[in-house]
Amino acid sequence: MFCAACSGLLIGAIIALVGTALHFLVGLNLALGSVWMIAGGEIWMLLGLAQIKFAGYVKVATNMMFVVGSFVALVETDGMGKSLLLDLYVLGLIGFVLLLRVLLSEWNNRRVCQTCRLCFC
Fold first, then answer.
1. Which tens digit of pLDDT belongs to each residue from 59-68?
2. Of the residues 14, 46, 63, 103, which has the maximum number of CB atoms within 10 A of its CB?
3. In this structure, is residue 33 part of a structural domain?
4. pTM for this model (two decimals)
5. Does residue 11 contact residue 2 with C-beta atoms inside 8 Å?
6. Is 55 helix (H, G, I), strand (E, B) or coil?
7. Is residue 63 a part of any domain in this protein?
8. Of the candidates 74, 98, 97, the residue with the CA atom closest to the CA atom of residue 87
9. What is the pLDDT of residues 87-109, one digit of tens each?
10. Residue 120 lies in a domain
11. Of the candidates 91, 74, 80, which has an alpha carbon nearest to the alpha carbon of residue 40?
12. What DSSP state is assigned to residue 3?
């Protein structure tokens, strides 16, 4: 049995790593140059934050969308802004949202553990 959240993050990370290698190392232009694509990536990141409300395959999908949305937002910002400083800013925002996602998951796990009380006889 695998953790749905971790599986989704792993699938998303593989997709993002392949996309990153193609875009930044090979030079394949994946950016469409659209503000709507940046907004779509940000929305996918926000859906990833809501993953604590889901289970099963939906949880896998939302966690995958979190990582892929981060990648899309970074690639689109890089394509439109063409600034290393802007790219670093977006990476910082992605890191902040990732930290927020971890803290939300820890909070939810602690809340579930406290209501279950199977470990505390």
1. 999 999 999 9
2. 63
3. yes
4. 0.84
5. no
6. coil
7. yes
8. 74
9. 999 999 999 999 999 999 889 88
10. no
11. 74
12. -
Report the chain's terminal Cα–Cα distance, integer Å: 27
Question: Would 121 be classed as within a structural domain?
Answer: no
Give the range of the structural domain holding residue 93, as residue numbers without chain letter: 4-114
**Tokens 């999908």 label which residue?**
61
Tell me if 68 sits within 8 A of 10, measured CB to CB.
Answer: no
Q: How far is CA 41 from the centre of its chain?
A: 9
Number of domains the chain contains: 1
The strand ranges marked E within 18-67 are none
